[in-house]
């Protein structure tokens, strides 16, 4: 899971690096050739895109740095932690829900991915199979019993 994420982020870094070093300079050069830069929308758009790409590259590099510092030996084998897939049973409704614990800026919330820093992530971290996590919500407190746990170690092979 971590290696897949590193590869995905690395590919995005390469794509953005190419855009920053090749595509955007060409767009800026073409815009400059058009003349007056004060009223040149192509020039302004290229500069804005350049700033966006630089900011995104900074975010990606920071995230890759954090991923590189993850020590797999510090993630428990039998408790919920980073990369765990957890099946919980709501004690009130008896329905099953599946969550995958990920880093904070995952974009797959529809697939059951939750951040470890989210309220549900914080309530599940450190719990084992059979334990009950208490999720405090504004209207009530949900009790979620962990019925199945697959840690990042088991998913990695």
Q: What does this entry look like structurally?
A:
The chain has four helices and five strands, in the order ααβββαββα. It is of the alpha+beta class and 157 residues long. It folds into two domains: 2-69, Helix Hairpins, CATH 1.10.287; 73-156, Transcription elongation factor, GreA/GreB, C-terminal domain (Chitinase A, domain 3). The model has no long low-confidence stretch (mean pLDDT 84).
Sketch the major β-sheet. 5 strands, mixed
Q: Strand order, main sheet: write it out.
A: 3-2-1-5-4
What count of domains describes the coordinates? 2
Q: What number is the mean pLDDT?
A: 84
Task: Name the CATH superfamily classification of the largest domain.
Answer: Transcription elongation factor, GreA/GreB, C-terminal domain
Envelope shape: elongated
Portion in strands: 15-25%
User: How many DSSP-defined strands?
Assistant: 5
Which structural category fits the helices and strands? alpha+beta
Radius of gyration: 22 Å
CATH architecture of the largest domain: Roll
Question: What's the order of the H and E elements?
Answer: HHEEEHEEH
N- and C-termini, Cα separation: 10 Å
Fraction of residues in helices? 40-55%
Task: Point out poorly predicted stretches.
Answer: none
Quaternary state, please? single chain
The CATH class of the largest domain = Alpha Beta
Can you tell me the CATH topology of the largest domain? Chitinase A, domain 3
Tally of helical runs: 4
């Amino acid at each position: 899971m971590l290696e897949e994420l590193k590869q995905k982020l690395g590919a995005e870094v390469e794509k953005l690096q190419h855009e920053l070093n090749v595509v955007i300079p060409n767009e800026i050069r073409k815009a400059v050739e058009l003349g007056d830069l004060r009223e040149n929308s192509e020039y302004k758009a290229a500069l804005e895109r350049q700033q966006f790409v630089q900011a995104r590259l900074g975010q990606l590099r920071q995230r890759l740095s954090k991923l590189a510092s993850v020590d797999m030996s510090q993630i428990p084998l039998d408790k919920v932690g980073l990369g765990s897939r957890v099946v919980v049973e709501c004690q009130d409704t008896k329905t099953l829900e599946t969550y995958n614990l990920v880093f904070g800026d995952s974009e797959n919330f529809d697939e059951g991915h939750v951040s470890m820093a989210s309220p549900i992530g914080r309530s599940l971290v450190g719990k084992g199979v059979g334990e009950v996590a208490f999720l405090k919500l504004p209207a009530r407190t949900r009790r979620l019993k962990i019925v199945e746990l697959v840690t990042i170690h088991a998913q990695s092979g």
